[in-house]
Amino acid sequence: MCLTIPGKVIEIKKDSFVVDYVSEKREAIASAIDVKKGDYVIVSNKIIIKKIPEQNAKKILEMLQ
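Given the sequence above, the corresponding structure tokens read:
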């Protein structure tokens, strides 16, 4: 089983997005999801698979600390 941590999109590049996970930043692509800077997302295998509400993401991140 895998634990998925929400990350925040902090930069939009030509073909990818930079997602901030507090401890590191990673690049990912968005398949069929409309993503913009500031959105919280779930990434699997470098693909953004879901956008989640900011309030939910912050609760999850708070619980993990």
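The mean pLDDT is 92. Try to locate this feature in the token string yourself.
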